[in-house]
């Protein structure tokens, strides 16, 4: 049967793509090493625990989904996920391999658990997936991705949004879906987004370092506490776009409460509070 | 809410949850993309979303007026696009995520949009 061996929480941002694409010298510069060094640690941890699949909980930025029909939760069941053109031409990465069988199983399990997701047989993934992913899962020597993914998109753009508690429960349901999959697979669940950022209005660029670090502590030690926050509270604490942190909360729901980070890093820089955490769940009781 | 036989079915917990999905007590510098923005901005959002497509980007570059014509933008909305009035577009209901696509085709760096946003108060 499939197992969940760990989790990753990671910010996503176009800035991370620009820096990654600029090459090793920029990534390792004084300005960006505080972000990219910890990603390297997570990459090494992934290399050691060797997951067979990544389930990536993220949010689209109106690259795959638009306001004509905006899904609250959308699950990929494709064999392959092309890179979306976000308006500047797609980044030159090959499509990411999927696992349609696992995707369909998760779809059935989520629906059985009363999470009525939108099921996507075709899905282009945007920087919600591919700004952090190359840092931990891309082989430059093979020019290809290492681990097949199942993407799960959460609406954090168009209010009303699913509540933090609902997203945590989604993660718990995702856990059951993975544990009931008959194939012997090791799975890591990732949640991307946040932490604090504000992209509109006079507060543009505001970063809330204290709250971001408190969020990461609560996520590790008291994830249920975060379920009681409203979107209004999260927005006041971390900015309008910081509600993406519900993707981390969904990831956390898929892990045992006793799981703890093995890598944890935070870097407030320019207009973003960048967070990164890797949780080892292999030995934790559920 | 007035109490009627029907509304008495609605528990306090339900009413709190209903209120919580519509943040209503945010300071003016924090804003949402919600019903009011989505309804107001539908034309502008359709227009900017189209710029995912390279053909639409070419059309924008070659004939901005013809590009706008496709989406039934109002005269006011067209003026906002022509002026690269990012605050106005935002107030007109344009999502930041499609605004980024318009910033690309107009060669506007995000810090410039940010500067306009910060100075709009």
Please give a structural write-up.
The complex is a heterodimer of chains A (286) and B (121). Chain A has 286 residues and is of the alpha/beta class. Chain A has a single domain (3-200, 211-269), classed as LigB-like (Protocatechuate 4,5-dioxygenase, Chain B). Chain A is built from eleven helices and twelve strands. In chain A, the strands form three sheets. Chain A has an eight-stranded mixed beta sheet. In chain A, strand 11 (260-269) and strand 12 form a beta hairpin. The longest helix of chain A is centred in the N-terminal third of the chain and has 17 residues, at 33-49. By secondary structure, chain B is mainly alpha-helical. Chain B is elongated. At the A-B interface, helix 10 of A face helix 3, helix 8 and helix 9 of B.
Summary, kept brief:
The complex is a heterodimer of chains A (286) and B (121). Chain A has helices spanning 14-21, 24-27, 33-49, 100-112, 127-130, 133-137, 164-179, 209-221, 223-227, 231-238, 246-253; strands at residues 3-10, 53-58, 73-76, 80-81, 96-97, 118-120, 138-139, 144-145, 149-154, 186-192, 260-269, 272-280. Chain A is an alpha/beta fold and 286 residues long.
Name the poorly predicted regions of chain B: none
Strand order of the largest sheet of chain A: 6-3-9-2-10-1-12-11
Query: Mean of the pLDDT scores of chain B?
Result: 94
Number of helices, where a helix is a run of at least 4 consecutive DSSP H or I residues of chain A:
11
User: How many H/I helices of chain B?
Assistant: 9
Name given to the CATH homologous superfamily of chain A: LigB-like
Could you say which structural class the secondary elements and strand pairing of chain A correspond to? alpha/beta
> The CATH topology of chain A is what?
Protocatechuate 4,5-dioxygenase, Chain B
Q: Count the strands of chain B?
A: 0
Q: SSE string of chain A, helix = H, strand = E?
A: EHHHEEEEHEHHEEEHEHHHHEE
H/E element order of chain B: HHHHHHHHH
Head-to-tail CA distance between termini of chain B: 35 Å
End-to-end CA span of chain A: 16 Å
Give Rg of chain B in angstroms.
Answer: 19 Å
Which percent band covers the strand fraction of chain A? 15-25%
Instruction: Give me the secondary-structure category of chain B.
Output: mainly alpha
CATH architecture tag of chain A:
3-Layer(aba) Sandwich
Low-pLDDT stretches of chain A are none
Shape of chain A: globular
Using DSSP, what is the number of strands of chain A? Answer: 12
- Give the biggest beta sheet of chain B: none
């Amino acid at each position: 049967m499939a197992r969940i061996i760990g989790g990753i929480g990671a910010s996503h941002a176009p800035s991370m793509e620009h820096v990654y694409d600029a090459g090793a010298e920029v990534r390792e510069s004084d300005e960006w090493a505080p972000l990219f060094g910890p990603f390297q640690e997570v990459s090494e941890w992934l290399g050691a625990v060797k997951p067979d699949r990544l389930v990536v909980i993220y949010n689209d930025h109106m690259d795959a989904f638009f306001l004509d029909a905006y899904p609250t939760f959308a699950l990929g069941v494709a064999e392959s996920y092309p890179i979306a053109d976000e308006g500047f031409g797609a980044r030159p990465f090959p499509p990411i391999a999927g696992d349609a069988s696992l995707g369909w199983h998760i779809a059935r399990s989520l629906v059985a658990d009363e999470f009525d997701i939108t099921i996507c047989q075709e899905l282009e993934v945007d920087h919600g997936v591919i700004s952090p992913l190359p840092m931990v899962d891309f082989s430059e020597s093979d020019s290809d991705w290492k681990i097949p993914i199942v993407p799960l998109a959460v609406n954090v753009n168009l209010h009303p949004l699913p509540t933090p508690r609902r997203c945590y429960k989604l993660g718990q349901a995702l856990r059951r879906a993975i544990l009931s999959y008959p194939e012997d697979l090791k799975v890591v669940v990732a949640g991307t987004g946040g932490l604090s950022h504000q992209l509109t209005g006079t507060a543009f660029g505001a970063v809330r370092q204290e709250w971001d670090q408190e969020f990461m502590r609560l996520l590790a030690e008291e994830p249920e506490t975060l379920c009681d926050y409203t979107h209004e509270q999260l927005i006041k604490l971390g900015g309008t776009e910081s509600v993406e942190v519900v993707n981390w909360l969904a990831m956390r729901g898929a892990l045992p409460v006793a799981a703890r980070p093995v890598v944890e890093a935070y870097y407030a820089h320019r207009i973003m509070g960048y967070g990164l955490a890797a949780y080892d769940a292999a030995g934790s009781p559920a | 809410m007035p109490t009627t036989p029907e509304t008495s079915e609605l528990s306090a917990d339900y009413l709190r949850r209903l209120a919580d999905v519509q943040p209503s007590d945010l300071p003016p510098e924090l804003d949402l993309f919600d019903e009011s923005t989505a309804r107001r901005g539908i034309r502008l959002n359709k227009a900017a979303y189209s710029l995912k497509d390279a053909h639409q980007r070419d059309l924008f570059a070659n004939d901005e007026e013809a590009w706008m014509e496709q989406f039934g933008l109002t005269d006011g909305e067209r003026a906002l696009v022509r002026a690269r009035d990012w605050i106005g577009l935002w107030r007109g209901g344009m999502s930041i995520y499609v605004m980024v696509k318009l910033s690309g085709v107009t060669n506007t760096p995000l810090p410039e949009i940010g500067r306009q946003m910060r100075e709009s108060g």
